[in-house]
Design brief:
Shape: globular
Largest sheet: 5 strands, antiparallel
Strand content: 35-45%
Number of helices: 1
Helix content: 10-25%
Radius of gyration: 16 Å
Structural class: alpha+beta
Number of strands: 7
Length: 116
């Protein structure tokens, strides 16, 4: 029995590991909206406490930059099993929040997050 699974795009991910996972890094704004800062994929863990990530361009979706990120800086990120799941999450959940934030900035509003 193995602890690995095919991610469907030729990459193999470790179950229970961030390696191979797709992500959105989220940053909370002053109006309470959480906006996506980066989108990408976790490539590996080259050193204790660090992850190597591959970022993807917003417009064409192509690979852009690789970065080393501290694991503790990834705590508020959203992780997905596939690139398709990541895109679906953005379209259905995160993009509306980006649009709401743009309206808040124009109107000068501060939104209190709903606790329900």
């Amino acid at each position: 029995m193995t602890n690995k699974e095919d991610a469907g795009d030729g990459a193999v991910t470790d179950k229970g590991s961030l390696i191979g996972k797709w992500f959105h890094s989220l940053e909370e704004q002053s109006d309470g909206c959480r906006l996506v800062q980066w989108q990408g994929r976790v490539l590996g863990r080259p050193s204790y406490g660090l992850c190597l990530i591959q970022l993807y361009d917003w417009v064409i979706g192509a690979e852009s930059t690789q970065k080393l990120v501290k694991i503790e800086d990834m705590v508020g990120w959203s992780f997905y099993d596939s690139g398709e799941d990541m895109q679906t999450a953005f379209t259905q959940q995160l993009e509306p929040e980006h649009q709401a934030h743009a309206q808040h900035k124009v109107a000068g509003l501060k939104v209190v997050p709903d606790e329900g």
